[in-house]
Design the sequence.
């Protein structure tokens, strides 16, 4: 569900939006923590996983990549807003 306060700010400047199910959150947190996406481990909480999940989904769909004009040399900024702020939940999710 979209939060109404940020939506009032974003709705006039965002051209594309993606909606994701929660199913891949734990799997992506684990991939980030195992250094599958970089040379170093990325400790990302549940709120940091949607960016990489979205990028993976976009890269797997040629139609969406074309619509977004995403190319091999494109620069992508993903913002993760938390690490393992709830360490018990973090370990529960990455050990599923």
Sequence:
């Amino acid at each position: 569900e979209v939060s109404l306060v940020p939506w009032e700010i974003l709705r006039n400047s965002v051209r594309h939006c993606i909606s994701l199910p929660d199913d891949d959150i734990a799997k992506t947190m684990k991939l980030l923590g195992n250094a599958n996406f970089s040379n170093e481990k990325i400790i990302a909480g549940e709120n940091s996983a949607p960016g990489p999940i979205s990028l993976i989904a976009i890269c797997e769909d040629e139609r969406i990549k074309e619509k977004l004009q995403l190319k091999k040399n494109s620069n992508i900024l993903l913002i993760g807003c938390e690490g393992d702020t709830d360490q018990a939940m973090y370990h529960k999710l990455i050990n599923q």
